[in-house]
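Reminder to self: keep the SMILES exactly as supplied, no canonicalising. Ligand is copper (II) ion.
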Amino acid sequence: MSAMNRKHALAVVAGLLAMMISTVAKPAEYQIAIANMKFGSPPATLHVGDVIVWHNDDIFRHTATARDGSFDIDLPAKSQGKMTIERAGPVKFYCRFHPTMTGELNAQP
Ligand SMILES: [Cu+2]
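Structure tokens returned for the bound complex:
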């Protein structure tokens, strides 16, 4: 490897490390409201380690339940529930009591 290539490779590695550190160091918290029997929009950018707070503003009990079983948040009327994103990739979710209520999270690593 020439000196030039080695320098370039080091810069790439340093950049990747900086990206990894910034992802780990700053988990974001997002709110998803449920109102009028509908899930609010999921966050446009989501990463593993981020926190989602589900707010049920309805007078009905709801759940935020992953189709792949990775989460199942029980949300009695006027309550909220918190969870941490543990894996990357798209996950469809729905409400166990009202299966027409659906949404999708898509976390990046
Ligand atoms: Cu529901």
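Points to follow up:
The mean pLDDT is 89.
The radius of gyration is 19 Å.
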